[in-house]
Amino acid sequence: MIQRMTDNHHFNQSAQQIAGLIERGDADGLRAALLALVERPGAAERLRALDAAGQLTRVIPELEPARDTDQPIVHFLPVLAHSFETVAAIEWLLGQIQAQAPQGDDGREAVGGQPAIDISQPAVPVAVQSYPGLRYRSVYAEELRRHFDGSVGRYPRAALLKLAALLHDVAKPQTKQPKPGGGVSFHEHQTIGGEIAARVARRLGFGANETRYIRTVVREHMRPGQLAVLDEVTLRAVRRFFQATGDAGPDVLVHMLADHMATRGPLIDSGAWLAQARWVDALLDTVWGEDQPITPALVNGEDLIRELGIAPGPLLGRLLAAVGEAQAGGEIVTRAEAIDLARRMFERLNV
User: Fold this and answer.
1) What is the 3-state secondary structure (H, E, C) of 209-239?
2) Percentage helix, strand, coil for the chain under 3-state DSSP, each rounded to 5
């Protein structure tokens, strides 16, 4: 109880500090304060509390429309609440990765046994509260642990992943459209959202590396699931995914698992969860199982915006995907060739 009171006191001080930083327009201070909220476990609860205090969408006003944006029935929460729940799921997954012993576990069992954490603690995903035996095990736990213990630019990778998770559906409100016959769609919300997330990151004073990382996670967060439903998944398609995501590939995969948990919540199916976990390991086989390095993409969105004068949006995503496919097939090998291909496609599509 004393610890909870102390935590609440520190949070109230943080909320007051953030309000002052907003009034002064102190981007550096806001960036530091936001990172302080998400670096430690319990980030989802602190973000929810910051929102309840009326400060979160003052820092990131792009999130306000997501508050009342409902989603299809497969989701159990509206968009902003879903984003908080995704952050909670990210933390739970990272905790599972850290807790997994490097030996003595085949990594394939995802349900059953005892819960790995005390579900009375805050920030535990609803899916885990509903199914306390839910676990995440990977044959690449050691590699994932080292990966998420690292940094992107100047900041901890895990903290930036939580920020990306908070922003991953930021474009859903403006892309929501009714579907013929009922239901709604959010076409290209990931591509448009990636650019919005990058704009937020730049406004907060993140550097090019951190901004690129956040954009990549948001822009590509649908891609692993889209691969999974193909009739045939080729090695070339998987390599295109890792070329498009680069060093953020494992992060996008962990985000997919978190997004799945945050979507289904109390209705999560343990069999589907097990399939998702195995799918992640199957994709990681291509980079860690065979000691194949992740080949960086020849160009990124900022390159094409600068070189072609193109605006952020779905067309930019199409060009990046086409360039990545050509790179995966060995059709282009240099940055100049990538830009030339994108330019020719851009001119053809704009005719």
Assistant:
1) HHHHHHHHHHHHCCHHHHHHCCCCCCHHHHH
2) 65, 0, 30
Contact between 113 and 133 (Cβ < 8 Å): yes
Beta bridge partners of 22: none
Beta-bridge partner residues of 152: 155
- 270 phi, psi to nearest 5 deg: -65, -35
pLDDT, tens only, 274-286: 788 988 999 999 8
Q: For tokens 């709604």, what's the residue?
A: 184
Give the DSSP letter of residue 40.
S
Q: Which two tokens stand for residue 94?
A: 């990272």
Looking up tokens 């900022």, which residue turns up? 302
The answer to whether residue 9 scores a pLDDT higher than 70 is: no
**What single-letter amino acid sits at 255?**
H
Q: How many CB atoms lie within 10 A of CB 236?
A: 11
CA distance 60 to 62: 5
81-119: buried (b, 16+ CB within 10 Å) or exposed (e) per residue?
A: bbbbbbbbbbbbbbbbbeebeeeeeeeeebeeeeebbee
Q: DSSP 3-state assignment of 180?
A: coil
What's phi and psi for 156, nearest 5 deg?
-60, 135
Rounded to an integer, what distance in angstroms lies between the CA atom of residue 234 and that of residue 260? Answer: 23
Which amino acid is present at 89?
Answer: A
Q: Is the pTM of this model over 0.90?
A: no
Nearest to 245 by CA among 137, 336, 321, 311: 321
Helix (H, G, I), strand (E, B) or coil at 42: coil
DSSP E strands, the chain? 151-152, 155-156, 177-178, 184-185
CB 207 within 8 A of CB 113: no
User: How many whole angstroms separate alpha carbon 318 and alpha carbon 172?
Assistant: 19
What integer pLDDT is reported at residue 31 of this predicted model?
96
What digits encode the pLDDT tens for the residues 78-112? Answer: 999 999 999 999 999 999 999 885 544 443 333 33
Residue 155 forms beta bridges with which residues?
152
| Cα separation, 348 vs 331, whole angstroms | 19
